[in-house]
Amino acid sequence: MTVHLMTFPQILIIDLYFKLIIINPYIKDPQKYEWEYLFRRYAPNLTESRFKAAVAEFLQFGAFGAKMSSMLVNEYGGLLWYSDPVTMNLGQAPIDNLFNTFRGIKGLSLDLRRHESEIIEFSDKQFNSEPAKQWILANGNPATICDVPGAMLAHTILNPKQFEKFYWRYFKDSFDFLAEHNLTMYLFVEGTMERFCDFFAELPKGVLCMHLEQYNIFDIRKKLPKVALAGGMTSDLLGYGTPQQCVDYAKKLINELGEGFIMSQNKMISFRNDCRRENLQAVNDFMLNK
Amino acid sequence: MEDKKIDFTYPEGFKKAAATLDFLPEEQREFMAGMFVSSILMF
Fold first, then answer.
1. So what's the ipTM on this one?
2. How many CB pairs below 8 A link A and B?
């Protein structure tokens, strides 16, 4: 096996890249940074006509999503995850943007060891919860599962100490606000999260519903008795099991999780093989006592 | 008409690109251009 170690000059270059190219310009003017650096890197040869066509497609896509959401609510009595993007600011830690957009898994993994203070500076600049708080107090969210949506992704590469610095520092502010105003958050948790249970165990009952993508939901129920849980029905079973296997597992979920559980698939159903129609129909019929 | 490459200067180039969105009311063009860019970068 060959091990590649970075030389001191390489490390210095990465340091300078992060401080001068990423963090400082972003903190100074986020929209300028997005346009001049990130978007240029993303689409360097974009022309005005293609930009116009892309924005038109983007708006059509948004309109289609709104139409389907409206159908879900009005015709099927469903509930949405969120109704306005501004409310997302309460439920997403800024480090997720470094993970997803600016630095990626490899870059952020290096930054966590060498640029902790800059990540916090970036996060403090980006975390702006006031507009979301004002919006939710003024409008409410009657068509959504909970009042505020949230998601976690970058936690998959963090340890509990890092989680406290880069997530909980911001989530605490949001959960304090939600508890004070008797509001709730629906938090979609990608990957596994069992090593962070101690943080969420502090929350009062009735503030958080956590949608678990992976990990054993029965174990999390024991560790977090005051947190409502969603998920449980595995996409593996929905995609590759039989209708009877799916219904049997649905019975187990209901019987063992009971109060404080929202029956749902665990992972997002994104691809054709994630769910067979007859399996979903069988679970749905069982849930509706048909 | 020549299809110009996007000018990635800010704010001049951004405003020029936003101005091409003539299917939107004028007051919404820059907001929607910014929203589009942020969304594309996120996903």
1. 0.96
2. 66
